[in-house]
Amino acid sequence: MDVISEIGPIGGPVWVAWREGTLTRATELEALAAWVRRKQPDSADSILDGAIHRHLEAARDAATVKKLNPHRRWRFFRNGPLMERASSNLDAAEAHILNIAPPSYVLGQLPCLLRHVRCHLVATDPGRMEFERIARSVGVGEPGDRPASSDAVSVEDIVARERGKIVTTVRAASSAALREHIQLRSFRNVVVATAVVMTFIALGVALLGFFGRTLIPLCFAPVESGTAVVVCPAAQSDRFTPSQDGVAAASSPPAAEIRDIDAVVAETATRMDLLVVELVGLTAAAIAAAAAIRRIKGSSERYGLPVALAALKLPTGALTAFLGLLLMRGQFVPGLSALDTSAQILAWALVFGYAQQLFTRLVDQQGQSVLNSVRTRDAGSSRP
Description:
3% strand, 5 strands, 384 residues, two-stranded antiparallel sheet, mainly alpha
């Protein structure tokens, strides 16, 4: 009953997954610290014991989103700093427990600690090389390794003697893991910020077309047998005879009305033209994002990078549809400037919207590379 009284309530439930994990891990480490105190009360370090308590309290404060000290009125985006606070304090508490735990406990944790070190430190890291040497000396490491001594007491003596190196290397691996997650979060923030900016640009283009339908008309005027018809994404004019400085061409049929092309374009263009084009491009981009999911490997990271990469495709598809048709209207591509119907315009908008994959594919590759560099627990990392 006394031991139970030393362990506080877990806390929660909270509405974010990583906060639940933090509360659970904090209680687990608190129980381990209490067990160490009971296991060897004479050797327990009061300074480290107090530090463990403070680190776990700080981790719980981060998980429960305690108010800032000093208080800041306008601070909404706290998730990143809170995650770093929780992770770093849990790592520090784990290191302190390893410092005061019995050698037999540290010896039992060596396989997991070795996996954690190998997961986050490069093979040429001096700390990792020394840690692997210590692990081999106690029979931990590759299959077939045998301890330097068959006496269990002697093996524990080795662990006790090398405890400082063990804890220091584990702490370095935890710091490297935190830096990897910071890199991942930074990349995710860049992707999200880019997606937000692209979304506002796409909305701006749609509003520009709504309030100024003649500023950037995505209309085409194919000429056939001396007559023309203005085709826009959402409307189409009657056939007419285009004028040349107000005078009809000599070969123009007299039955067709003589009109200026610019005037017909101004009449035919609608407020919804750019919006329709962008919606078609966005739909094509959504299909491309759904198809790209099959190439994204799952990960237990908490930052939602695959979701951010998929979200980036949507406004990009809307803008590439608009810009692609704008290039066609400017006769940038010879032979593809005379679209005959609104359906053809929307079909090309669909093609250009899906073509955003040519650009975002490079971002997807970089994102997957960043994800691969973050070797989380599903890649073999473990903690004591």
